[in-house]
Write a structure and sequence with these properties.
single chain, 75 residues, mainly alpha, 3 helices
Length: 75
């Protein structure tokens, strides 16, 4: 069974992979408006606690590479 941090991390990655950065952020803002008690800032604060800055940067670079690849394939 995966812990909460892993679930959040994988969910975040899946969301941004599918929607891209802008639409994923919009989706999260919509959720926060609709759900009382959901604190997006608090959720983001604890999102990468198990990763170093270098690991987060590597993940971001890989996500950007994948997004560019998808964009090029769509053309």
């Amino acid at each position: 069974m995966k812990n909460d941090v892993v679930i959040k991390s994988e969910g975040y990655s899946a969301l941004f992979d599918k929607l891209g950065s802008v639409d994923a952020e919009r989706f999260l803002m919509l959720l926060s408006r609709e759900r009382q008690g959901f604190d997006y800032t608090e959720w983001r604060h604890g999102l990468w606690t198990d990763k170093s800055l270098t690991e987060v940067a590597t993940i971001a670079q890989e996500l950007e590479r994948q997004a560019l690849k998808r964009k090029n394939l769509a053309r």
